[in-house]
Design a protein that fits this description.
Elements: E1 2-6, H1 11-17, H2 21-46, E2 79-82, H3 93-101, E3 107-110, H4 119-137, E4 142-147, H5 149-160, E5 167-173, H6 190-194, H7 200-206, E6 215-221, E7 241-247, H8 259-270
Helix pairs in contact: 1-2, 4-5
């Protein structure tokens, strides 16, 4: 299992202004909090546009930059974006545009009902959506990017409902893989209870998963206020091929919109791995 870091480029400048360890903690936290508030304000404005499930009409291809060597366009599976708790597909506006600009023309954002009260039920619905996407596009497998609860729903589908035959790569952003203790007053909602450490559902995900074919990439932040403990957003499972990527200096809401994270997501999705149909077409991958 690999753990890497995406650092905040402005932090060294702040440390020169406020020396010592306090600068790294307090200034970084203030910056992350300010960014979270700005993202929240923007998301509130965009939220109504994402309430309705998106249309399945074909999209106009955007020109892809020629600087980086990538998987051939025809080899790239569709990308499915799955939002978090009490959210909708509008959270992925920037990420979707970023992926399209870099050659991912088949990107779909799925909404699940805000009234959903069970992760297992949501995972079954996700499976039906993915089957429909595969039938419509002619693809055997898809890639999935899940933010927060969305990542947990997709992981349950992979591990417990046979979704590893359909999901090639699952990228999770701030997903409580080991459960989170934050906001105990929210326990009235059944899905929140399922996301607690030691819940029946979290225990199901820790059970053996031999032969799982999906590759997991988990982005977790050292300033994610919804993960308690922070490392609960990492995947620790002996049977899963998982890579945990630490992101420094941003919070939970910033994970789907931060450009450094978007670059990491593209690299994770474009990497040719053993067993991929595209691997037979030769070559590795260089991501700029």
């Amino acid at each position: 299992m690999k753990v890497t870091s995406v650092a905040d480029p402005l932090l060294p400048f702040c440390q020169r202004l406020i020396p010592g360890r306090i600068a790294g903690v307090s200034v970084g936290l203030l910056k992350a909090t300010a960014l979270e508030l700005a993202i929240l304000a923007g998301h509130v404005l965009l939220y109504p546009s994402g309430i309705v499930q998106e249309r399945r009409a074909a999209e106009t291809p955007l020109p892809a930059p020629g600087a980086a060597a990538q998987l051939p366009a025809e080899a790239k599976p569709p990308v499915v974006l799955l939002h978090g708790f009490i959210d909708n597909r509008s959270v992925f506006v920037l990420l979707r545009r970023n992926l399209a600009q870099h050659g991912r023309q088949r990107v779909e954002s799925l909404n699940y009902s805000p009234l959903t009260c069970d992760i297992r039920t949501a995972a079954e619905l996700l499976g039906r959506h993915i089957e429909e996407i595969c039938e419509r596009t002619g693809s055997e497998r898809v890639d999935v990017v899940g933010h927060s609860l969305g990542g947990l729903i997709a992981r349950y589908y992979v591990q417990r409902l046979g979704g590893d035959t359909r999901i090639r790569t699952l990228v999770t952003l701030g997903t409580p893989h080991a459960g989170t203790r934050v906001a105990p007053l929210a326990n009235a909602h059944p899905i929140v209870r399922q996301m607690r450490p030691g819940s029946e559902l979290i225990e199901e995900l820790s059970s053996p998963a031999p032969g799982c074919r999906t590759h997991f990439v988990s982005f977790w932040s050292d300033l994610d206020h919804l993960m308690d403990p922070l490392e609960s957003a990492c995947i620790e499972h002996p049977d899963l091929r998982a890579e945990n990527i630490r992101v420094s200096g941003i919070g939970h809401l910033a994970l789907p919109v931060h450009p450094a994270v978007a670059s990491g997501i593209r690299q994770a999705l474009d990497t040719v791995r053993p067993g991929d149909p595209s691997a037979a077409q030769g070559g590795g991958l260089t991501v700029a």
